[in-house]
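Consider the subject:
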Amino acid sequence: RNSRNRLNKISKMATSKLVQAVVGRGLRETGAALKESSGMEFFTRHRSSMNFWGVKPFKTNDTFIAPTASVIGNVLNWDESSVWYGAVVRADSHPITIGFSSNVQERAVIHTLSSKVEVMEGSGFAPVCHIGHYVSVGAGSVLLSCRVEDHVEIGDKCTISEGAIIQSHVILEPGTVVPAYALIPSGQRWGGNPAAFIEHLSDEAKDHIQTHAEQVHIQAQEHILEYLPIGNTHVHLEQLEATTSSNNNTKPIQG
């Protein structure tokens, strides 16, 4: 009986905290919604997704853009992609693409050459920045008008300069610097400054690239649930009701 009483007490305390959290979130969202509907301007509020010259970044329902990230202008975010805290994706000059289940991690910067540059002299291609599918861009990395094909893992604090091409199934070690217009062949591991060949990737290493990107996507979905826009408190309420119902249906422990 004592065990059952303790469990009931703990359950009530946990439910009370959940109710407080949901009610608090609801009040904050209600205030924000009222301010927005009244036309009030927010001069200090950070905008994680920002139009530039009438062009709005495109994202899907399962794209995660962290509240402190900055995604600006002509950016195409594919399904299950994510841009993490403090990262900047700045397409105010030329388009940027972030592929399916790809991620741009904390404080990374993705940008392009000036709008005055229409064609890169070293390659003859437009100075866009393309990030393929299942690509992980490590924290603190900088990518400038380059092409990263599918299944690539870019370590932390890497630099990829304009016109560089990273072919599929490549791993760049942390701190790697890829010079302008360089080509990193498929199926290899590179590292150093400037980037140099290290080894050919095993099948296991190649498979890990996609696995890692999928793991980051799963983590991003958890952050999406925690950072809901205005009007989605009902999701938490439904979860709370389901949890409460489950607790009530639990058979008591015989003391």
